[in-house]
């Protein structure tokens, strides 16, 4: 059953990328809001319970819809939704395992450098971007403690939102919209599938051994 969800996700992702590349707004309105819910279906099928990553996917779906609406207000609403997504992912990853210190230091350094370089170009978005990007960077760092796949997903999420930040700062990037969506799709897929596998593997070991029903006679 879980493979069917991933198959549906792959098909919708292809449609979404075609819609972005061809600048077909109607196609994007149909496809983009389905991306996170399809991965949520996969995760619930694999895990059979709601966890923080599932909550994060719900808010990612809401953020995707908000970002389809033009205007600064919708952009801020979308950023707020994705802030909850990052915090939910961060919570799940930290509960699973602590990330390497080197990864945390590296991502925080990248956060500081990127915000310093874009600070003068972001205008009124400076503080929202500063806070959101901190949560995003911490999530990406925490993802390195879960698995290689989630680490790749965290890095792709950071790259996707960095591209959005460059666009908000007025920095032109070739194939900007397509790159943003491709890295975002890769991020969600890597994080969700990586988390499903890593958390399922860890669960049996984390459960306490059952106590014997009666004392041993030996």
Automatic annotation (TrEMBL):
Transmembrane portions of the chain: 29-46, 53-69, 75-94, 101-119, 125-143, 150-169, 175-196
Signal peptide positions (record): none
Pfam families in UniProt: YhhN
Major site of localization recorded for this protein: membrane
UniProt entry keywords in alphabetical sequence: Membrane, Transmembrane, Transmembrane helix
Subcellular location: Membrane
Topology term for the membrane: Multi-pass membrane protein
Record family assignment: Belongs to the TMEM86 family.
Name of protein: Lysoplasmalogenase
């Amino acid at each position: 059953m879980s493979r069917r969800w991933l198959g549906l996700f792959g098909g919708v992702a292809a449609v979404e990328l075609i819609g972005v590349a061809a600048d077909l707004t109607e196609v994007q309105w149909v496809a983009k809001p389905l991306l996170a819910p399809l991965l949520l279906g996969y995760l619930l099928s694999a895990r059979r319970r709601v966890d923080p990553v599932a909550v994060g996917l719900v808010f990612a779906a809401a953020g995707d819809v908000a970002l389809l609406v033009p205007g600064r207000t919708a952009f801020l609403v979308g950023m707020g939704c994705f802030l909850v997504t990052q915090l939910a992912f961060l919570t799940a990853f930290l509960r699973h395992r602590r990330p390497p210190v080197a990864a945390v230091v590296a991502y925080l350094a990248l956060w500081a450098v990127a915000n310093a370089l874009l600070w003068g170009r972001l205008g009124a978005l400076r503080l929202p971007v500063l806070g959101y990007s901190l949560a995003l960077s911490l999530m990406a760092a925490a993802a390195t403690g879960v698995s290689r796949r989630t680490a790749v997903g965290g890095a792709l999420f950071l790259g996707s939102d960095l591209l959005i930040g460059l666009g908000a700062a007025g920095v032109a990037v070739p194939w900007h919209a397509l790159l943003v969506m491709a890295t975002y799709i890769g991020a969600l897929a890597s994080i969700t599938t990586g988390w499903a596998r890593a958390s399922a593997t860890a669960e049996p070991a984390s459960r306490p051994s059952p106590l014997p029903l009666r004392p041993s006679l030996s």
